[in-house]
Amino acid sequence: MNTKIAVAVGMAAIFAAMLIPISTPAPAYAADVNVEMAPGASTKTTDAYSPNPVNVNVGDTVIWTNNDSPNTHTATSGTPSAGPDGKFGGTAEAPFSVTIAPRATFSYTFTEAGEFPYYCTLHPAMVGTVMVAGSTGPTEFSTTATLDGNEYVITGKSETVQSATAEIDASEAVVVTFDTDGEVELTLPKTMISGNITVQAGDETVVPEVLSENATSTTIKFTVPAGETEVDIKGTMVIPEFPVVVALILGASIAAIIGYTRFAKGSTTGFFGRV
Ligand SMILES: [Cu+2]
């Protein structure tokens, strides 16, 4: 390729990359919620904005779309009697500064909980309310799996899952049953399971993200697929059933002692000294 063309292409690529806006990551689980200015909105009141009130969560973005051609509207925080409060969609000094033309949209992200009244400064009979519910944050829960009288505490954290039960399928898997599906974090004691951890949900094998690991536990994050509630968590090591091993060792030891003692009786020195 011609060197000048190559340089030009390279420069163009760099400029193109610079034009891609750097977006700030949205808060986890944030949603876009649509509100429509319905046809005929300019002659309506509490039904001018639909749905009204609109219920959202902290971090959600409300997107107002003007479907009332040919009228221009606003979605201005405040009330017709008190005027704009300046939170979104215009200010007291400039109540018509943020207009929404037909087919255009206006959006605002709600970062705190509360009740936010708004109205159209061009048609003050048009009123609406955004109800913002506070984020409750993830729920923490714990469950205990028992094997041979030993207890292994599993702790969890999730936006959707509220509780879980667990049991140990010795040497095979830790079976955890959740109350619902969704993304979940689990901290598993290493005395119970360790090594390379995989999660089996139905026919699906989910590779969990290892969030942290220390000498005593591993914290993993994965999504319980929709419709599933039970997962088999497998590791390089899953605690084996203890009594079998103990019984085998004890049994072998006793047999050996008895055998040796009997054998030793034939000689002058027994296992426990002279007999
Ligand atoms: Cu209007």
Structural features, described:
The structure is a single chain. By secondary structure, the chain is mainly β. It has 3 domains: 3-133, Cupredoxins -  blue copper proteins (Immunoglobulin-like, Sandwich), CATH 2.60.40.420; 139-238; 243-274. The protein has 2 helices and 23 strands. The strands form 6 sheets. The protein has a 5-stranded mixed β-sheet with strand order 3-9-8-5-6, with no helix packed on it. The termini are far apart. The relative contact order is 0.10.
List keywords for this structure.
23 strands; 5-stranded mixed beta sheet; 3 domains; 5-stranded antiparallel beta sheet; binds copper (II) ion; mainly beta; Immunoglobulin-like; 2 helices; 275 residues; elongated
Q: Give the rounded overall mean pLDDT.
A: 86
Annotation field: number of helices: 2
Distance between the amino and carboxyl termini: 99 Å
Overall 3D form: elongated
> How many distinct folded domains?
3
User: What's the β-strand tally?
Assistant: 23
Largest sheet: 5 strands, mixed
The CATH architecture of the largest domain is Sandwich
Enumerate the strands of the largest sheet in spatial order, edge to edge or round the barrel. Answer: 3-9-8-5-6
CATH superfamily of the largest domain: Cupredoxins -  blue copper proteins
Radius of gyration: 33 Å
Bound molecules: copper (II) ion
Strand proportion: 35-45%
